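Exercise (ungraded).
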Amino acid sequence: MARTERVKSMSATYNAASGTGVSTPSTWRGLAMGRSGSDLVIASLLVLAGLATLLFGEPYWLLGAQVAITMIFALSVDLLVGFAGIVTLGHAVFFGLGAYTVGIASVHLGWTEPLSGLLLAGASAGLLGLGTGVLVLRTKGLGQLMLTMAFASLVYEIANRAKPVTGGADGLQGVIVAPIFGLFDFDIFGLTAFLYTLAVLGIVVLFAVLMTRSPYGRSLVGIRENRVRMQAIGTNVQQRLLSIYVVSAALAGVAGALLAQTSQFVGLNALHFGLSGEVLIIVALGGAGRLWGALLGAVVFSLFKDRLSALDPAYWYFWLGLLLAVIVLFAPKGLIGLVDRLMAALHPKEAQ
Amino acid sequence: MLTAALTIIFHGLAFAMVLYIVSVGLGITMGLMNFANLAHGAFAAAGGYVVVVATKALGWPFWAALPAAFVVVALTGAVIERLVVRTLYGADELRQVLFSIALLFMAIAGFTLAFGPLQQQPEIPAALSGQIGAGGLEFPAYRSFVIVAGVLILGALWLLIGRTRMGMRIRAAVDNRNMAEAIGVDTKLLFTMTFALGTGIAGLGGGIGADVLSITPTYGQEYLVLFLIVVAVGGLGSIFGPFVAALCIGIVDVAGKYLIPEFGAFFIYGVVIAILLAKPAGLFGVRS
Amino acid sequence: MTAAILETRALHKNYGALTVAQNINFTLEPGTFEALIGPNGAGKSTFVNLLTGLVPPTSGTVILDGADVTAEPIEARVKRGLVRTFQINTLFNSLTVAENVILALDEHRGQGWRPLPSPSRRRRIREEAYDILGRLGLEPWGNREVKELPYGRQRLVEIAIALALRPKVLLLDEPAAGIPSTETGTIIEVLENLASDLAVLIIEHDMDLVFRFAQRITVLVQGAVLARGTPDEIANNDEVKAVYLGEGIHA
C-alpha cells in the first residue's frame, strides 16, 4: 500500500513539473525520445540569434564561426557522453586530428579543396576513433577515463615532437583553403566562414536529431540505462558503443577541420587536455543527453569565454570553476533543465 | 656508460618518489570512496605554496614548513570533503569529474591571483643544497633527500594502513563498504579522515617535490595525467601498487628523455596504454 | 519424445576447488513447462548464467536448437531464441514502459542499427508494443517511465521485454520474487497464456506456482541434479524431502 501511495505522489509531482502536456519530465541526462518543448524554444532562439548575427553583427561573424564550430564539437561529445554514457577526457584528440589533417593536407600536399578536406578530416578522426575505441571500450570507469587521456596525451606528444610535419609548438602556419565550390572565397570579414560553418552545423544537427530519434539512437540510450539488459535482448553492446565512438570521433574531426579552415592555422591547443575538459564542461553546462542542451551550452560558454578571458585568464578560470561547481551541485540538468523549469512555470495550466 | 645508467636511475628514482608521494593519496581515496578527484594535484600545489610562504615570507625552517604543509592541506581537504565532496559520493562519474575540474580551475585562478603566474621555489636548508659523493660519483643532495623521503612515506603508510585500527578500517571499507558499515565502522568519519590524509600527503609531496615538479598555478593540471597514470597503473586502493607504478614510470620517463630526447614523453604513454590493456585494474588493483 | 530445444551435456563449472555446477545433463523440449528448484546456494543462478552465456563453463556443452552454442556470447544466444528475465528488475528505468518493449522489438528485428527514424514504422512498432503490453495488462502504463511503476508492475515489464523477443526458450528467473503472494495473480495469468509451443524453464521459490504449472521439475543441490521428474514424483521423492525438510514442499 505504502508503495502505491508513494508512486501516486511521485507521479503527481512529475505532472506538475512537466510543463506542457506534450513534454514529459526529463531526468539528468534526459531522454532520447525527442520530447520537450524546451528543445523547440532553444532551437528557435539559436536560429534567431544566428540570423541576427548574420544580418546585423558583422564584427561578430568570425566569433560566430567559432561558436558554430564549438557547437559541432559539443554535439559530438554529447552523443558519446550524454547518450551512450561513455565519459571521455580525451576527445580533443579527434578535434585536433581533424584540424591537423586539413592543415597538413593543405601545407604539405596542396590539398586545399575545403569540402573534401572536411570529409578527409572526418574519415581520419573516425579511423583513429575506431583504433582507440576498440581498446578504450574494453575498460570501464577510471581505467577508461585514463585510457582516453593517455591516448590524447600520446597524440599531443607526437604532434609536439613531429615538428617538420606539424610545426610543433609553433603550430602550422599558412593553411591555404580554396574557395568553396570554387566560388566563395574566405573573406577577412568572415562572412564565408560564418555561413560555411553554419551550413555544416545545420547538417550535423539534422543528422544528430534524426539519429537520436532512430532505433539506433534509442539503443544507445538503452545501453546507457542498462547495459546488462541490452545484452540480454540480443545487442552486441561493444559493437554498438564502438560505432558511436567512431561517429562521435568523426564529427569532432569535422569540427576541428572547420577550425583549421576558418582560422587558417592549427596549433597544439587543438589537441590539448584543456580542450577535452572544456567540451565536457560545455555539455554539462547545457545539459547532457539532450542535444539542444549541448548546443545552448556551447553558445553560452563561448560568449562567456570571449568576454571574460579578454579581461584576465586567471579570472576566466575562476569564474569557469565557480560556474561549473554551481551547475554540478545545484543544477545537474544544466541550462536546459532551467529552461524546462521556466517552461513549466510559464504554462502552469497545461500541467495535469 | 655505467655513469649514465646510474644517473638515469638516480634521477628516475627522485622523479618516481615525487610522483609517488603526490599520487598515493589519490589512489587511496579513489579506492575507498570511488571518487575520481581530478583536483588532487591542486592540493599538492597548495602544499608547495605553503612551504614557499613559510620558508620565504615567514622565515620558518624548511623542516617546520613540511609538516605545516601537511597539516594545512589536510585540514583544507577535510573541510572541502565535509562541505561538498561528500554530496557527490555515489553520484555518476561525469558529475564527480566535472566537480573536481571545477575545484581545479578555481585553485589555478586562486594561486595565480595570490602568487602570480611564475614558478615559486622554497628556501632549501644549506645541508640539502650541495652535492654528495658516493662511489666516485656526485649526486645532488636534495634529490637524495627526496628519494629517502619517498621510502619513508611508503614505510609510514605501510605501518598506518597495515598496523593501526584506522588502517584496518580503511582496508575493510575498500574491500566491502557495506560490510564495514554493517559491523559498525563509521565510514563518514573514515572518509573525511582518509580524504584529509590523502590530500595532506599530496601537499607534503608538493612541498618536497618542488625541485622536481615546479610549483606553478597550473601544477594540478599539467601533471594531472602523470598522477592519474600512477594510480591507474598501480591500482586503486593500494599503497604498494602506486609505488611500483611510480618507479616504472619515473625511470622509463627519465631514461626515455635522456636517451632519446626527440621522443619526449612518448614512452610513458605507450607503457601505460600497454599496462592498462593487459591489466585493466592496474598492477595491484583491489578494484578496477 | 520430440527433439530437445535446449540441452546441456556434462555442463561443469568450478572456481578452483569450489564446484558450482557438477556435470549437469539437462534437456528441455518445445512446449514444455519445466521448473528448476533447489535450496539457496544450490547453483540455480549459476546454471541459468551458464545457459545464457554470462558465465563460461569449465567443461561441457550447451546445445540450443540443434546448435552448439557453448562458445557463443549472450547476444548470439538471444538471437537464436534463448531469452531470460531477471530475478531483480533489470530494466531501462528512465525510458517509458512502451519504449522498453520497443527497444526489444527493434533489436529482435535487427533494426538496432537503423540510424534514421521512420514515422510509419514507428507507428507500427508502437502498435506491436502495445499489443504485448495489453496481454500483460500494462497498457495504461505504456507512457510512464518504468521507475514510476510499482514493483509488481515492473516485474511484468521484465516479462513484456522477454516476450517481445519472440523466444523459443524462456528462462524465468523467479518471476514472482518481491511480489506479495496476494498479487501473484497476474503473473499466474500471464504464465497460463504463454504460447503453447514455447519451452519454459522457471526458477521459483513459490512452490504453489511451481507445482501448479510445471510438467517436470529438476531439483538442484550443491550444483548437481538431485532428482528430475513429474511434480508427483518429486513431491514423493525422499531425498528431495530431506533437502527441503522444514521448507514445506507440497503438491
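Further reading is listed at the end of the chapter. For now, observe: Chain C is about 35% helix and 25% strand. The two ends of chain C are 25 Å apart (CA to CA).
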